[in-house]
Amino acid sequence: MISKKKNKWCVGVLAVFSFCSFGLSKQAIAESYPAAFDPRQMGTVTPVKQQVGNFCWAYAAVTATEQNYVNKTGIQADLSGDYYARLLEENGYSGADMVFERAMGWQGPVLEKDFSSDGPGSHSKEELEKVPAAVHVQGFTTLPALTNFQTNTADEITNRINKIKSAIYNHGNVTSSRNGLQSYRTDHDSQNVLVQNAVDYPDHVVTIVGWDDSFSKNKFTYKPARDGAFIAKNTWGTNWGQKGYYYISYEDAYLRNQELYFVNSVESPDNYKAKYGEGVINGGRRIETKSSKTFGHVFDAPKEAEKIDAISIRTAVENVPYEIYVNPNGVPTKGLEGFTKVAVGTKADIGAATIKLEQSIPITSKEKFSVVIKLTKPSNLDKMPIPAELGAIGREIFRGHSLDENNNWKKESDTNYLFNVYTNSNEPVNLGRIKDVFPAPNFAAEIAKQLGKSIHDSLTQEEADKIKSIVLSGYHNQEVDNAQGIEYLSNLEYLQFQDGKLSTLDLSKNKKLNWLEVSGSLITTLDLKNNPELRWIDATGSKLTSIDITNCTKLESLQLGTNKLKTIDLSRNPKLSFLSIYRNQLESIDVSKNPELNHLYLGLNELAAIDVTKNPKLYYLRVDSNSKIAKIDLSNNPSLLELGAGKTSVRNIDTSKLPNLKYLELVGNQLKEIDITKNPKLENLYISKNQLTAINLKNNPAIRFLSIGENQLKALDLSVNLQLISLDVRNNQLSVLDLSKNLKLKEGTYQTDNNPGIKVTPPKV
């Protein structure tokens, strides 16, 4: 049992809405996840918190926020849990959801170093609300409790596990409320709360940050049915548990009978200039409707020119169709007259999300502008609840409007709907002359060409925002040696600086980039932490000694051949399917977190080992000229078509689990034997410079190219290999070679030199 030490206990509830779950996200069910995911091993964790007072929920919430931010940006932010403890101390027994609601309104979070407290009442609410946020929370999600948690089937539990894994993998965090004492082991390293014990009131909140499928069920005091556990980060300091962490069984009942929350978007505090709207619940919790509901707010227009770039929406049930409309020049009059539809979609999850507009909407009015949201009730519901602030005590401003069945607008007297409008400056920003902004002549010329200008003309930020693609290649006398100015191309999606003299490249401001080619450059370092949309990278033939792709979670293709890399971290690239890092200086590589990998080229490195047992989709594998590799386990690669492992230390290789293999290269490996009888589709076989004394090719009728020279063969039966068009058996000990049935072999396509006294029966004409 855990001793009741000072500052360790808290009472918290994570419950805002009590609505039922209406199905699990198809994406969460369909995604495949690695067997283990531990941010402690990736260096993407923030310090364990030491809570003060009964405010675990505040500390767990900022821990979740930190984890999302470091996962997405690589930047660690030590946020203050005590700030929210003071801000919400009137709601002493609160929950992480209350923190996320405040954060959506940009009330915090604040940095630990920027906030000091002398305990309860040391700051007025007004003072606290004025402290600038260190980061901006732009969304959070609720995973509703399962209504039938006491009788969940194994499949239902698995689906719940996958939902939690999806949140952790994609967003870094899940907050879980539970009973702090229930069923811990005496060493405080694991917990499994049984269904019959989960009726106890939850009094603690922790943050789940990872998992381990192999964590033994025998390590729990109350043994669950299956192995596997989530990694939880506590708020009781590093002297508790495993330096502040412990394991929660996949079957823990509190994971199912309580709502779970996670932060889905955290951005830098300069992401928008201003925020309009209400993201905080202070009064009532919801409005119910039996059909669709159209509602909106009227806002005072800004004094300076601004444009609407994003709008957050809030839903209380899953799979809600939405439409967003903007009137930048006035208030609602009749229906949607004067409004423009700016976004449409279906919000799959419960909670808040920020919808970024495809095109900015300038606010043209000097007095008022309006934003309207239409939510449509999902067909499986009788009523749809809508989060709102109703009759809040002390609240004087109510902006809510709703559209009635007669298409008339009604101004609400006591309602604020929970959505925010985010804006940026719309003042024209003159960046200077194009030739000065982009010193590289070819770069400047390309910008001017796309904008229909001269390089001597001035450039505004609005014009720079129009540039989405840059293609400049040394092959066409368009090489670039200076990328200065690229920081202004915030909407850049496609970039090609090929075969130039470019030695440095800062892409930290090009967050929409999805295609990058800098092959043949002089670049030594690529820091791509701020480029989460990247799907394709080619830096072949450059001078790279380091590359950071840890935040490129959408990356599918990575080509880094002929560089100087000694190491690379691929642990955060689950969608990677094409990987080519030949001719580098790699001493080790881990591809176990890349289940989609199908093409892997690692030839000409310094690898001592390669493990591809977690890559079942692999169809191309080349590890040739890695002299230290002595073993390759191919037991879980049934799709493999091409294998190259020549000039390694592999002396034995098992290809019996490769029924589709078509290409096999094992030149210069000192093999004494090889069994390819289970590879009936083999077409290309290159196994020269070994020590083979015999080989059975009777189960390989598809072979077309056979190179088996410089071995010790004394006999070779090619009677079933009728597709042969090229044969090399030089430097063996063959005395007889019958090619009479190999009719596709022609003179000059078979070589038999240096087989003393050999008698060759040529193909029949």
TrEMBL record:
SMART domains: Pept_C1. GO terms for molecular function: cysteine-type peptidase activity; signaling adaptor activity. Keywords: Leucine-rich repeat, Repeat, Signal. This is Peptidase C1A papain C-terminal domain-containing protein. Residues 33-264 form the Peptidase C1A papain C-terminal domain. One of its GO terms (biological process) is proteolysis. It comes from Candidatus Enterococcus palustris. SUPFAM superfamilies: Cysteine proteinases, L domain-like. Residues 1-30 form the signal peptide. InterPro entries: CDIRP, Lectin-like, LRR_dom_sf, Papain-like_cys_pep_sf, Peptidase_C1A_C. CDD domains: Peptidase_C1. Pfam families: Lectin_like (PF18560), Peptidase_C1 (PF00112). The lineage of its organism: Bacteria, Bacillati, Bacillota, Bacilli, Lactobacillales.
